[in-house]
Amino acid sequence: MAMLGRTRNRRQLDIFEVPIERFINRDHEFAIGAVNIDWESLEEHFKPFYAPKGRPSVPPRKIIGMILLKERFSLSDEKVLKIWPENPYWQYFCGEVHFQTNKPFSVGELTRFRRRIGAEGQEMIKNISIKQFGKPDGKTYDSYSDRKKKNFWKKIIG
């Protein structure tokens, strides 16, 4: 069992890092979701699944956010992690302060987290996904290369 990791809340300016919130549209569904979801309550709810000592885990907001994105777009664990580094809205939604260019963690972290929280915790996250984004609509990233095609974006954006 891993120790509870914390979301980085450092909002001070760094000459080499521009906060994501400076270059995103606050009306985007994930920017709105980042504000509407009570992340602190979620962290408190899942806190018992972490050890008081040991190696810090992936912060709950980041891993739960990734699961919500996975649900929203009907993605596999591998695909959601592969796409995440290119999307500032997904990163903002998951609690990142600055744009990241690498995968946030390995696929195994998602598997271990789901195993730790069990069926009840997974159902809770699924209910949050439905409340936030509605029922899955079948809009998926069929393949990573599909994202370069015009009709792909029409399918995702509408």
Walkthrough of the structure:
With 158 residues, this protein is an all-alpha fold. The protein has one domain. The chain contains seven helices and no strands. The chain has helices at residues 29-36, 39-46, 60-73, 77-83, 88-93, 107-133, 150-157. Helix 3 (60-73) packs across helix 4 (77-83) and helix 3 (60-73) packs across helix 6 (107-133). It is globular, with a radius of gyration of 16 Å. The model is unreliable at 141-145 (pLDDT under 50).
Mean pLDDT: 83
How many beta-strand elements? 0
Distance between the termini: 42 Å
Mass-distribution shape: globular
The number of domains: 1
Helix content: 40-55%
How large a portion of the residues is in β-strands, by DSSP E? under 5%
* Low-confidence region ranges: 141-145
Helix/sheet category: mainly alpha
**Largest sheet report:** none
How many H/I helical runs? 7
String of helices and strands: HHHHHHH
Rg on CA atoms, Å: 16 Å
Quaternary structure type:
single chain
